[in-house]
Amino acid sequence: MSNQSLIPVILCGGSGTRLWPLSRASYPKQYLALNGNSKKTLLQQTQERLLGLKGLIDPLLICHEEHRFIVAEQMRQINIQPSAILLEPIGRNTAPAIAAAALKASEKGNDPLLLVLAADHLIGDPNQFLLAIEAGRIPAEKGRLVTFGIVPTKPETGYGYIEACEPLNSDRLEGKSISRFIEKPDKKTAEKFLQDERFTWNSGMFLFKASSILTELEKFSPEILSCCKSALAKEVPDLEFSRLEKGAFQKCPNISIDVAVMEKTNVGTVLPLKAEWSDIGSWNALWETSEKDVNGNVILGRVIAENSQNCYLHSEHRLLVSLGINNLVIVETDDAVLIAEKSQAQDVKAIVKKLESDGGLEAIAHRKIYRPWGNYTGVVQGSRWQVKRIEVKPGASLSLQMHHHRAEHWIVVKGTALVERDGEKSLIAENQSTYIPLGCKHRLTNPGRMPVELIEVQSGTYLGEDDIIRFEDRYGRLEEQD
Predict the structure, then answer these.
(1) pLDDT tens figures, 200-257
(2) Is 409 helix (H, G, I), strand (E, B) or coil?
(3) pTM here?
(4) Which of 20, 106, 249, 287 could form a disulfide with 231 if both were Cys (CB 3.0 to 4.6 A apart)?
(5) CA distance 199 to 190
(6) Is the pLDDT of residue 1 over 80?
């Protein structure tokens, strides 16, 4: 068994709109705890299921810059210090992300194995998964590009397929050369694939040496490699993050690693994986992988289900009651309710697009918005006023800022806040308040060891989050507008 260094490369992109209204662009599914058997998020589970692998070192994560503090905080919660968190200024699919990761991992002359994983997958049998990774080391260390093909359990039309040159034995962790990749097939074709042991689902997970993938990128997609080299050469350190330079990175072709390399290379190997895998690509898929009651219902939150079968029932706030229903998905959040036939639930992505075109804020963000210092939740809003609930983590601080169009009134309801107004500082305890007039330079800090909670009442002619001028910010957000 090899002890060569192995770096998990966790791809954290994607908006997960098919799981709306839980998953949204500002807080997509990979950062949610969607597995009812675990309180850990999908990202955290992706990292933790690797424990025990030989030669495992700290992960390298790639995410959109908007999600950087979420990623850092979720890694901190499971006591992981990433080797790097690369920030993409714009989404460019998996090929540029993997190219940047391989360059970053080898910049000090190292040539580690890279285990490329999506942050939003579920693995029901982690032990079998680890065995497959160990088996994949052998061809990967010989220069092969190993991908893990999921042994099909049904004629699935929602996944791409991989055809091996020879039949695969799912009971033996032995890779075979890849013949071709197939896009999502129709039902008849998928049924044929199910009967042929050469075909597996394309999981999008890979194992290869950094030098191996860089060699193949240079051969088949040199433009991607060139752009990523430039973006890394001009990267800007930002706290624990590394910002890829936008001008160079956005020139990268928007292309998957399958299209850029795997469909063209002659060193591809597919290794069969039978580990209860799911990419949780729809509500139906989430229902299939979740624990059910005796009636086949998945119940999360405050739910009463009577004479209901095979439903996914999820309530975050209000009481949800189901009577005499079958095969439905019902998801309640604080600002939206989804009711769909399970067979139609995959079409929710089209609803999100319609909301976006109509300017609906529900398409993008939850009422609860996360920031590096904590979070805030929109409570109620009028034409010239709004109310928010704000929570500030111990030791955290909002930026020193001012607003041109609104005044703010803060009422502390839990903890003690240190408030700075035009250079004057004062402590505000529970049931005390302070007023921030329009144009006042101000900052709020939590000096204590428990979270501070306050109610903020805003009033003014414009209440947008971009009405903010930052003067100081410990999180490097001086150029950002929200």
Answers:
(1) 999 999 999 999 999 999 999 999 999 999 999 998 887 789 999 999 999 999 999 9
(2) strand
(3) 0.89
(4) 249
(5) 10
(6) no
State pLDDT tens for residues 418-439: 999 999 999 999 999 999 999 9
SS3 of residue 251 by DSSP: coil
Mean pLDDT calculated for residue range 307-316? 96
C-beta separation of 409 from 436 below 8 A = yes
DSSP helix/strand/coil, 421: strand
Residue 116 CA to residue 10 CA, distance in Å, equals 6
DSSP string, 161-210: EEEESS---TTS---EEEEEEEPPP-HHHHHHHHT-TTEEEEEEEEEEEH
Distance, CA of 294 to CA of 51 (rounded, Å):
34
Residues with Cβ within 8 Å of residue 291, at least 6 apart in sequence: 36, 37, 298
166, two tokens = 């020879």
For residues 252 and 245, is the Cβ–Cβ distance under 8 A?
Answer: no
Q: Say yes or no to pLDDT of 356 above 60.
A: yes
Distance (Å, rounded) from C-alpha 412 to C-alpha 397?
15
**CB atoms near residue 46 (< 10 Å):** 24
Q: Are 134 and 1 in contact (CB under 8 A)?
A: yes
How far from each other are the two terminal CA atoms of the chain, in whole angstroms?
Answer: 49
Domains of the chain: 6-278 (3.90.550.10), 283-349 (no CATH), 370-472 (2.60.120.10)
Element (H, E) at 442: strand 442-445
What does the block give as tokens for 68?
């950087």
**Backbone φ and ψ of 386, nearest 5°:** -155, 160
> Whole-angstrom Cα distance, residue 161 to residue 184?
7
What pLDDT was estimated at residue 237?
A: 82
Question: Average pLDDT, stretch 108-125?
Answer: 94
CA distance 371 to 375: 5
- Sign for the CA dihedral angle at 194, 197, 198, 201 comes to positive
| Backbone φ and ψ of 148, nearest 5° | -100, 115
Strand pairing class (268-273; 312-315): unpaired
